[in-house]
Amino acid sequence: MRYDAEVIGQNAGIIWRNLSEKGELNITGLEKSAELKKEDILLALGWLYKEDKIASKQVGKGIKFYLK
Question: Is 90 exceeded by the pLDDT of residue 18?
Fold first, then answer.
């Protein structure tokens, strides 16, 4: 798959909608709910961080992501 701004932006929208509907999710939760590969999720999370749309917190040894 070729990654470009359009694809990453579309995936960011998928992640945003999942966080909006389900609340806090970790990477595994996002993989299941968004049905995206881990690499796609990480790129989309970076996009959402850059736009200041999400935040994260450490929970145990993991990280949970949520909308601002």
Answer: yes
CA angle 19, 38, 65 (to 5 degrees): 30
Contact 31, 38 (CB under 8 A): yes
pTM of the model: 0.91
Assign domain 5-67 to its CATH architecture: Orthogonal Bundle (1.10)
19-37 pLDDT, tens digit each: 999 999 999 999 999 999 9
> Distance between CA 44 and CA 38 in Å, rounded?
10
Chain centroid to CA 10: 11
